[in-house]
Amino acid sequence: MLSPEFLTKLEPLRIHCQQPFRGKFRGDRRSLNRGTGVEFADYRLYEHGDDLRYLDWNVYARLEKLFIKLFQADEELAISILIDTSRSMEFGDPSKLTYAKQIAAALGYITLANSDRVSLYTLAERLFSALPSTYGKSQYPRFQKALATIEADGTTHLTECLKHLAASQPKAGVTIILSDFLDSAGYSEGINSLLGRGFVLTLIHVQCPEEIDPPPPGEWRLEDAETNETKEITINEETIAHYLNRQKEFCNNLHRFCIERGIGYIRINTDVSFEAVILQDMQRAGFIQRKR
C-alpha cells in the first residue's frame, strides 16, 4: 500500500497533540501521570516508603518538612483511526475509500513508529473494530492487512457510530475520522458525544473531483449511491450554480463547526497525491510535525 521509500520519509514525523492523556505503557508523550521522567512537574509531602532519592533537601532546609519531587511521566498516546466505509465512499477514480485507506496507512505507520498505540475502525451502518489497539512498529504489517480487507458497503450512520465509540472507550484519546461526512442525519450530535468524553478530534474531509465538478448540462438520471433511489433531472446552468453553492455551504459549515469546537479539520481532494497531503498539507495544518 505504501512504498519503502515513502515509509522512510515518514520516519521523522509524528502526530501532534498538545493535550496530555493517561496512557498504559511508557512512550514518548507527555502524560497526565507523574513518574520518573527527567522533567520536573511538582512536589508532594513525603510518605513512608517513598524513594529517598527524590527528597528535596533544599526545601527541607528552608521549611523543615520532607517533600518528594515529582517528574513528568512519558507514556504512549492512544490514537483511533475511523474510516467511513459507506457506499458513497466508492465514488471517484481513485475512489474516496481507496484514498482514505492510503492516508490511514501513512498515519498508522507514523503512530506505530513513534511508540504510540493505534486502533482501526470502520463506520457505516454500525461501528466495527477492524484492528484492536496495537503497539510497536513491528505490528505495522497487521495494520496494513486489516486495511486491505476494508470494503465499502451500507449506508451512513455517523451519529450512531460515533456515539457507540464514545460509550465503548474506557479512556479518551486522539480520534481521526476519514469521511465525506455525507449523512442526511448530520454529524454534529455524534461528534459532540466524543467531545463530551474529552476526545481530541481531527476530521479529514475526503472529496473527489467528480463531486466537486457537476456533470455538464443535459438530461440525467441520478442514483443515490447508498439507497439506490433514482431521480430524473434536467441539469442547466442554474442547476449547476445551485449545486456549487450548496456544496460550498456544506464544506464551510463543516469547517466552521470544527473551528468553533477546537476540532482539527483538513479537506483533501483525491486528485492530489496522498504523499503530498501527508508530507506537505498535514504539516502546514500542524496535524503532523517533525520530531525535535
Distance between the termini: 28 Å
Structural class: alpha/beta
Number of strands: 12
Low-confidence stretches: 21-36
CATH architecture title of the largest domain: 3-Layer(aba) Sandwich
User: Strand share of the residues?
Assistant: 25-35%
What name does the CATH topology of the largest domain carry? Rossmann fold
Number of helices: 9
User: Which term fits the overall shape?
Assistant: elongated
Order of helices and strands: HEEHEEHEEHHEHEHEEHEHE
> How much is the average pLDDT?
87
Describe this structure in words.
This protein is of the alpha/beta class and 292 residues long. The chain folds into two domains: 4-10 and 76-290, 3-Layer(aba) Sandwich (Rossmann fold); 29-74, no CATH class. Helix content is 35%, strand content 31%. The chain has nine helices and twelve strands. It has helices spanning 4-10, 57-63, 96-113, 140-148, 158-168, 188-196, 209-212, 237-261, 274-284; strands spanning 13-15, 26-45, 67-75, 78-84, 117-123, 127-135, 174-179, 200-207, 218-223, 230-235, 264-269, 288-290. The strands form four sheets. The chain has a six-stranded mixed sheet, with helices on both faces. A two-stranded antiparallel ribbon has the order 1-12. It has a two-stranded antiparallel sheet with strand order 2-3. Strand 4 (78-84), helix 3 (96-113) and strand 5 (117-123) form a beta-alpha-beta unit. Helix 3 (96-113) crosses helix 9 (274-284) and helix 5 runs parallel beside helix 6. The model is unreliable at 21-36 (pLDDT under 50).
